[in-house]
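ok so i was messing around last nite and threw this chain in just to see what happens. nothing serious, just curious
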Amino acid sequence: MTFRVGQKVVCVHPCNDLASDKIYTITSLGLLGKPRNEPAVGVDQSNFGPRPAFYSWRFRALVERKTDISIFTAMLTSQGVDA
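result:
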């Protein structure tokens, strides 16, 4: 998966510094580990000074869905119910 700086991600493989299911914002991209040099990301963590990098496989992209309840309020209004 390709990530980008500023993207919101969810931690799916926690470690000591990452909480499971917590949402983070990617602050940097790079490579981590030798000799494989796997893709890594830096994430925004307010409780850390220098920001450590983590393997990108620890995260998945956050799927943001815009919620729109107008269809439901329209159904209520058409049935004579005050929304």
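not much to say yet. The first helix runs from residue 70 to 78.
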